[in-house]
């Protein structure tokens, strides 16, 4: 598990960047060519077109902030069974813990029991879908097993299946989506907390939720509005599908997505970062910046920058904050932190993406890991590229449009976005 000991020891961090596991006695698969495969059974639900024909009926899901992650509420199965999964634009597979679960982390709510759902359908090893997943081995019962891992060392193992996933519309009606491929996890390990029932994969790959449901909504588009860290857990915002990513008006800016070999992440180009009025070029000079040098990941809390840029950002922030940083707290390590009873009046930062300048106020850049302490919500990596984490994404309506290949930002009080 990737863990940042210098950044908020009170919070568990997962860098949800997928990789594919293959072992001699293990089941492996690569995530590719997954498509929606709708079963013919009706299960007494109205067709999706009936819900979306009227103006204003946009499918939505509530999102809640909890311990550095954002949990999305949706229902799975028939009858609908409510789950809360980590919103993750950095991975593709949607999965939840399923009964039986002999080697799983503890969760507060009951686990999904596929035997109690009339719409659950295992994917057979002999099916076309399982072969396209390149599953290495079948289970003894000829089921399509999966193993999916993350750079945090979190792993989920189980059975690949199809189910009905239910969202709600802006008018409060249910929006059922049949035949969605998901992971029914029977062996899930890592330091998940007891509110997290799995992960909602919203990446760009073909197995992601947005890729599977896009055709039902007339396009692969969605938007999110993440409330700031430490917002009361009872305050929710919305994830909107179909509409909401076509943003315009005062403050709306867009930057192009960049195609890379890894099809999952939302890669964009960061030209530099301004601290107050001081501009810091991504490379430290006027050299041309490589396209797609950072990706937006709602499953990673801090923003991760290459060390050479991170060091310059920290240096400028420390120069522009008229306070002495904390140097005597072993819990914080070398992270740039300040002790104050009020919100830190830190400098305004600006992320200069290609074609889009995104302003970051202290509420988006300084996080309070404990009482009267505020720390810069950035960390560093020896790699060339980086990750634009969920702290920096808060209080912005962010639209992801896979059809136009754009990501759009519009400043918003996400605690009031409904």
Automatic annotation (TrEMBL):
Coiled coil: none annotated. It comes from the Eukaryota. One of its GO terms (molecular function) is aspartic-type endopeptidase activity. Its main location: secreted. One of its GO terms (cellular component) is extracellular region. Residues 70-410 form the Peptidase A1 domain. PROSITE patterns: PEPTIDASE_A1. SUPFAM superfamilies: Acid proteases (SSF50630). The keyword Hydrolase applies. Gene3D superfamilies: Acid Proteases. GO terms for biological process: proteolysis. It is found in: Secreted. Keywords: Aspartyl protease, Glycoprotein, Hydrolase, Protease, Secreted. Belongs to the peptidase A1 family. This is Peptidase A1 domain-containing protein. It comes from Psophocarpus tetragonolobus.
């Amino acid at each position: 598990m990737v863990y940042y000991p210098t950044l908020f020891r009170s919070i568990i961090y997962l860098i949800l960047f997928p990789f594919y596991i293959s072992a001699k006695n293990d089941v492996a698969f690569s995530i590719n060519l997954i498509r929606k495969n709708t079963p013919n059974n009706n299960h007494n639900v109205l067709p999706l077109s009936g819900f979306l024909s009227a103006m204003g009926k946009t499918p939505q899901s509530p999102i809640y902030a909890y311990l550095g992650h954002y949990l999305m509420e949706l229902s799975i199965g028939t009858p609908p069974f409510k789950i809360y999964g980590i919103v993750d634009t950095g991975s593709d597979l949607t999965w939840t813990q399923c009964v039986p679960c002999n080697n799983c982390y503890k969760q507060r709510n009951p686990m999904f029991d596929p035997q109690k759902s009339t719409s659950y359908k295992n994917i057979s090893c002999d099916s076309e879908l399982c072969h396209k997943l390149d599953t290495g081995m079948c289970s003894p019962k000829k089921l399509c097993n999966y193993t999916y891992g993350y750079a945090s060392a979190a792993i989920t193992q189980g059975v690949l299946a199809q189910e009905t996933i239910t969202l709600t519309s802006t008018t409060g009606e249910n929006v059922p989506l049949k035949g969605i491929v998901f992971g029914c996890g029977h062996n899930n390990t890592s330091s998940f907390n007891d509110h997290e029932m799995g992960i909602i994969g919203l990446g760009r790959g073909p197995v992601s939720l947005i890729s599977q449901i896009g055709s039902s909504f007339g396009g692969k588009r969605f938007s999110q509005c993440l409330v700031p860290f430490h917002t009361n857990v009872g305050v929710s915002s919305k994830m909107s599908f179909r509409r909401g990513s076509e943003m315009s008006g005062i403050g709306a800016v867009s930057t192009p997505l960049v195609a890379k070999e890894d099809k999952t992440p939302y890669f964009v180009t960061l030209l530099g970062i301004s601290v107050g009025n001081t501009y810091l070029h991504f490379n430290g000079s006027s050299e041309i910046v490589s396209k797609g040098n950072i990706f937006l990941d709602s499953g990673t809390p801090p923003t991760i920058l290459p060390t050479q840029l991170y060091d310059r950002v920290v240096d400028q922030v420390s120069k522009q904050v008229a306070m002495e940083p904390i140097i005597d707290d072993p819990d914080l390590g070398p992270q740039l932190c300040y002790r104050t009873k009020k919100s830190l009046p830190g400098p305004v930062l600006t992320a200069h993406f290609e074609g889009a300048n995104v302003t970051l106020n202290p509420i988006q850049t300084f996080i309070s890991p404990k009482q009267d302490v505020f720390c810069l919500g950035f960390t560093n990596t020896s790699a060339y590229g980086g990750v634009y984490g969920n702290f920096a994404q808060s209080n912005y309506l962010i639209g992801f449009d896979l059809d136009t290949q754009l990501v759009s930002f519009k400043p918003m009080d996400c605690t009031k976005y409904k």
